[in-house]
Write a structure and sequence with these properties.
250 residues, alpha+beta, Heat Shock Protein 90, 2 domains, five-stranded mixed sheet, two-stranded antiparallel sheet, binds adenosine-5'-diphosphate, binds magnesium ion
Length: 250
Amino acid sequence: MASLRPPSPSARGLEFLGAVAGGLVHEIRNPLSTLRLNLQLMEEDFEGDDGARARRALERIHTLEREVSRLEDILDDFLRYAGFRRLDAAEVDLNRVIEETTTFFAPECARAGVDLAFYPDLRLPLVRLDERLVKQALMNLLLNAVQAMDGRAGSQLFVRTRLEGDRARVDVIDNGPGIPAELRERVWDVYFSSKKAGTGLGLPTARRIAEEHGGTLGFETEVGKGTDFFLVLPLRGPAVAPADAAPAGA
Ligand SMILES: Nc1ncnc2c1ncn2[C@@H]1O[C@H](COP(=O)(O)OP(=O)(O)O)[C@@H](O)[C@H]1O
Ligand SMILES: [Mg+2]
């Protein structure tokens, strides 16, 4: 008979830190939106003025607006990475979840000139997962793929599902530049980014979401040909959190 125990100190510590970080992020976000609002008002003040001083001021305002956006992105990504919360898993149609994610992402692909296609494996049974988190992991992979292809002509993004025994596999395949050998380990590091405005939190977040489900996230890549990120999830979903399970050996 499983006995209920309070969460282990480490799980509680993480939850606590996540909550503190979340509070901090919200405290920073409010003044940032005040900054953004006032920058927009200043922008309106200068609009229609053709003078050299007004043009210079407008350029500076745009720079500040870009920096504010970047800070907001960092806060969002950080909150997702550090915002530790318990999984909210339910049995869902993974193909439907992916269909919704790719549909949501389609305008982004259109803008970047990327051909997007989804090939679902229709044999896939229901999978127990936290839909919001899995969508978030997929979004991170899709976004990385589009950014890697960088508007090149003939850019293609394939998403497909496959039933593999008691697991579901999702591949996100691009025909971008691939990941050079010397970066293949580092891409999983928190804050590692090869992009000018990257946060380096997309892959570590996606991997953690996979692992919290008892699954894995990996990739195969070939320089000059493209990259295949694959998310593998157990059909039966995440194991019961150790803190909630019977104490081992007791
Ligand atoms: N599909 C991909 N093709 C090539 N490189 C990729 C791909 N996905 C991720 N990467 C590499 O992994 C790095 C880390 O990705 P990520 O953690 O999402 O951070 P960010 O996107 O902010 O740089 C990227 O900067 C890029 O160098
Ligand atoms: Mg990313």
